[in-house]
Amino acid sequence: MIVVQVAVGEMMSNAFIVYKEGTHKAFVVDPGADYLRIKKRLDDIGITEVTHILLTHGHFDHIGAVAQIKQETGAVVCIHRRDASMLQSDQDSLAVMAGVTIQPVKPDYVFEGGETIEAADIQVEVLHTPGHSGGSVCYIAEDVMFSGDTLFYMYCGRTDFPGSDPAEYAHSLREVLGSLKKDYTVYAGHGIKTTLFAEFSNNPYLMR
Ligand SMILES: [Zn+2]
Ligand SMILES: [Zn+2]
């Protein structure tokens, strides 16, 4: 499985193109902005089919290019139920706070958490990790985790936004991520990649 990271937008959010070597299908995680840059990377790699757009949560900096990619590719847009309204509301997605507007899009598939789906021939598990937002999820595929704004290299997500919940967040980190027995390469929503066990050992915001 190949993961291509593309930093997009003014918040330097990470979009990811994920595919199996030798295929021309991919799924995209968090196309937050810069549709044309993501499109160019897809074309350069030789991706001809985007099967799914998997969203770690619904904040504006993670969803800004969803509508265009969906229009262009017909990809299935997936988000957790509790963040679904963010795809159609500049208020809910916090776009208004940043003075931007997002092209609204209807989700095609709404998660509850705990699902495993197949995207671009890759099994993807959905872990509900609320706290930064109510519908924040982490996606696990093979030995990789896409953590959105739930976990960063040596840092954790903000919990002072409307819809954030520090108590839920603490539970998600300690009980949901903290109970995982396997180490994963963690691709975060902003910044560089890390690993799950390295964060549990070194991240000052994570106390076991
Ligand atoms: Zn966020
Ligand atoms: Zn973010």
Structure description:
The strands form three sheets. A six-stranded mixed beta sheet has the order 1-2-3-4-5-6, with helices on one face. It has a six-stranded mixed beta sheet with strand order 7-8-9-10-13-14. Helices cover 22% and strands 31% of the residues. Strand 11 and strand 12 (155-156) form a beta hairpin. It has six helices and 14 strands. The two termini are 31 Å apart.
- The SSE order reads EEEHEHHEHEEEEEEEHEEH
Radius of gyration: 16 Å
Distance from first to last alpha carbon: 31 Å
The CATH class assignment is Alpha Beta
| Tally of strands | 14
Biggest beta sheet attributes: 6 strands, mixed
* Helix content range: 10-25%
**CATH level-3 fold name:** Metallo-beta-lactamase, Chain A
Helix/strand/pairing category: alpha/beta
CATH architecture: 4-Layer Sandwich
Average pLDDT metric:
97
- Widest sheet: strand order? 1-2-3-4-5-6
How many DSSP H or I helices?
6
Q: What is the CATH superfamily classification?
A: Ribonuclease Z/Hydroxyacylglutathione hydrolase-like
Ligands bound here?
zinc ion
Low-pLDDT parts are: none
- Any idea how many domains? 1
Quote the beta fraction: 25-35%
Can you tell me the overall shape?
globular
